[in-house]
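Q: Is it fine to ask for two folds in a single conversation?
A: Yes, each is treated on its own. Send the first.
Q: Here.
A: Result:
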Amino acid sequence: MGVTRRSVLTSALAGTTLAALSATELAATADAATAGAATAASPVGDVVGKITVGYQGWFACPGDGAPINAWWHWSQNWSQAPSPSNNVIKAWPDMREYARGYQTAYANLNNGAPATLFSSYDQQTVNTHFQWMQQYGCDTAALQRFNPNSSEGPTRDAMAARVRSAAEAYGRKFYIMYDVTGWTAMQSEIKADWNGKMSAHTASAAYARQNGKPVVCVWGFGYNDNNHPWDAATCLDVINWFKGQGCYVIGGVPREWRTGVGGSRPGFLDTYHAFNALSPWMVGAIGTAADSDSVYQNINVPDQADCNAHGIDYQPCVLPGDVSARQRAHGDFMWRQFYNMVRVGAQGIYISMFDEYGEGNQIAKTAEHSSGVPANSGLWALDEDGITCSSDYYLRLTGDGGRMLKGQLPLTATRPTPPVVSGGGTTNLALRRPTAESGHTQVYGSANAVDDDPGTYWESANNAFPQWLQVDLGATMSTRRVVLKLPPASAWNTRTQTVSVSGSTDGSAFTTVAGPAGYTFNPATGNTATIVFPAAASVRYLRLTFTANTGWPAGQVSEFEVYNA
């Protein structure tokens, strides 16, 4: 089993409470709070003003083609299939949108489906994750890169290429985030890895830039434990080396970075101040909304003041909470953090994490209730506190948090995101409404797309992209997402259609509601794709524009459904 951040931080955090800070910390808090605020160090870029998600991309399964050829991060003993006695994960993913699953040694799910898991090595998995990032407003992904000079190295190299491909395909940004935990020869090897391998990815238009510079993060400097043994001078050398390569350098640092106590080594303040941005780690340190309020008052406020005074961007963590520890409080815990980080004036927000099923802190789609987890596994689902939450709830919540960060939603302590799409959100507003089209072939007219019959379908004129399909909702109303379906028959092979959505109040002037993106329809998972709008659209007419289809040279839809939540 590999090293995880939580496993190496437990001892460092032990004995330090949020409610009772030491006298040293309180004194430093007072000093920093009176330091005076400066303007933000950097303008909006791919980090500042954006939601960044930590992306592990470190799950593999035997038979997926990965060089590691193991149950990488899915089990305690990677050579054996995950099971109740060989388990390291704390939550079960919702597998319905993955093209391929790998059979585990767990019993079937409580709904009778086989207990399968995804592999990050499959490009479709990474594409699915980045499609979710696009749909739910996650701007940038920080790909975690641990010591690559081990048996994991070739698989990690391949994951960087897969992330780059997905980011390019779905219009997201990405950057390399080195986690130096346990990396003995870090000082020389991290430089060689950047020059020899990772810097090549900065040639991609999808590689994140801030202040015109490629972004790199180094997580782990200054932690007061044996897995992070370097002195301040060694760490400063690495920071300045990356800056000398023209990079914008983020530091993933202990939450006590400013005071030099508890989880932080003393004497590191000048080293921390050498970073362009600071992102203090909070996983394992907070677990309730009250904890977040305490951190806001005693840590975030003086942190922000210190960063402002030194021209450093502040990118604090926001986490959904550990499902297994029952911390999430159906989103209230996470929203309180969004509220606190926005009101403190943070330049950006880092989500811990996108796909961390091992720590239970993932925002990626997760089993909604017990029917979606293996029988007798002991795992909790998202409804662990009795409140039903949709599998995409924490993605939707992150999207709303991002809108509040960007000023698109007013600052509010009241969570605006419902745990489930309920009420009017379950009514298909397009059902049997009038339609229009660019054209169709044979008998496959546009009315088939709203007739509530999955066996009939609209098919545009062939070999003549772009093509469009439109529905008239009858009156101007708020819309939030569309669901597109193809016939469920297995004869409809998996295909990806490139679709954009535009809207109009008069049927004449249309504006973009959701930009063009590829949506995969897989008969194994219902041949369904959902397009969640970046923001609610008040429209009467919704138009789908098709520009590509990998399965047939035409736009194809059996059901065009519209919902207001």
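Q: Second one now.
A: Result:
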Amino acid sequence: MPKSDKKNLGDCVSETANRLRLIQVDFANDSEQTRMDYLSEEIKRILKTVVPEQRKVFLEKLMERFPTGHLGTTVKDEQPQSKSQTEIEVEELNDPELAVRRLLELAPMLSDEQKGQAAGRLQEAGFGQPVVARSYSDEFIRDLRAALQLGDVQDIQTDRLAEMIVLLADFVFKLEPLIWNTWRMLSPRSGIRPSGSLKKTMGQFICGDSATPEKKAENELKMLQRLIAAITTAVGRVGSQFAKRHLGRFSPSEISTLVRMEHGSVFVSHEVKCWRKYLELAETLTEGSIEAEIRKAIADYAESLIKGPDR
């Protein structure tokens, strides 16, 4: 049994046989003596890991894996092999397990470029899917913890983080056109308009498009945030403002003041004049005029919030 990892003897024999077959394949074009030298060197190396009392059994079991003698090399005056050496080598080359083992053995000797090319070829052949890099900077993790009010002891699971990013992106991309369409309806003449496709801008930013300004995606998101906040706030405030303006125009005291300013006939009582003035003003109260007034009030209030007091 190997001293290093204490695998059972059968596993050790199987692994050794596989390694010897790989050596046979690698040096198939070399002389028989060269192959024998490499095979002998490998067997000696393995025997050092086998306890002395099991070495004889180990070699016997190993030879059972190579019934043609000399571990697959040609031996004279023996019965002909059931398969030629070339056929055996072809079978070994077609063994996926041996191919993977050989690739893993070569990996430490390959450059990053060679590894990338090999990975690309394997992906083209259907082995796995392209891997998306998900390495996050310490600054990003710190900002994320602060935004979500997470403690340092709570682990962030990258799979769930990626899933949440997709959900938030879907939420924003569905909300954005609704907000801008609502704003166009409220204020068709306003100069506040989207600068482009937010989805496209964010995609270019994530992919590192050099033609996209670094702050463009951030600025567009902040603009959308201000617009949502402004419209929401305006809807809550405009109701009371509209009510005050309506009462100011149609209150008895306001109508009475308007009547006195007109100096009408002295033969008509003041109360009658006030009623007539009310009827006159009421004719302007149509569904369309009220809706337009409410929309304008919302738009004016929202735009004042977006632009700020200094604009």
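Q: Anything structural to flag on that second result?
A: Two points. The chain has two domains: 9-94, 158-311. The chain has a mean pLDDT of 77.
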